[in-house]
Write a structure and sequence with these properties.
two-stranded antiparallel sheet; 181 residues; alpha+beta; PH-domain like; single chain; 7-stranded antiparallel sheet
Length: 181
């Protein structure tokens, strides 16, 4: 009788333990290190992608901002696994394991630096995709601006022939016979 109670009790404990552990899992992003001295180690916060020109990491009452143009690469590495006696791996009960997102950048002076954040696997993939999208938009805008020339608005050339033709179609000139009547 005692063994059956013990078996039922231990079964319930192991059946209910993982859901409780999952509820306690945090989806906060943690800064785990890098070359930036302004962010304290182990600061937790969130990324903000609202600005089109810079990535923002909000932590506590502070904000760290980095222009997307300075970001050179992003890399995702698997999080550390825990081991018993440094030999036996312990399984993770989390649905979304932790990974480390590393952002490499060059500052305005050209010095290389890194930022490392610990976050869930789905968050890491989403952040990497968002950064790539923002960088792509900035590069596309820069290429469009580099193709412009100030004289295009003043002179008709082969380079801007399509623009002038489109403007002529929108603003039709009256025919000379209609103007003389």
């Amino acid at each position: 009788m005692f063994k059956s109670r013990q078996l039922v009790f231990s079964t319930l404990v192991f059946a209910l333990l993982p859901p409780f552990m999952l509820r306690g899992a945090s989806s906060a992003i943690e800064y785990v290190g890098g070359t930036v001295k302004g962010i304290p180690a182990n600061a937790t916060g969130a990324f903000n992608f609202d600005d089109a020109k810079e990535l923002r990491f909000n932590y506590g009452q502070s904000v760290y901002a980095m222009p997307y143009e300075q970001i050179t690469t992003t890399d995702i590495a698997k999080g550390e696994t825990h081991h018993i006696l440094r030999k036996i791996p312990v399984p993770s009960f989390s649905r979304d394991p932790k990974e480390t997102l590393t952002i490499d950048y060059k500052d305005a002076a050209g010095a290389a630096g890194t930022l490392s954040f610990e976050l869930t696997a789905s968050q890491a993939a989403q952040v990497r995709d968002d950064i790539a999208t923002k960088k792509g938009r900035i590069q596309a805008n820069a290429e469009a601006r580099s193709n412009e020339w100030w004289g295009d608005a003043l002179w008709k050339t082969n380079r801007n022939k399509g623009t002038w033709e489109a403007q002529s179609a929108q603003n039709p000139q009256p025919s000379p016979s209609a103007a003389t009547k």
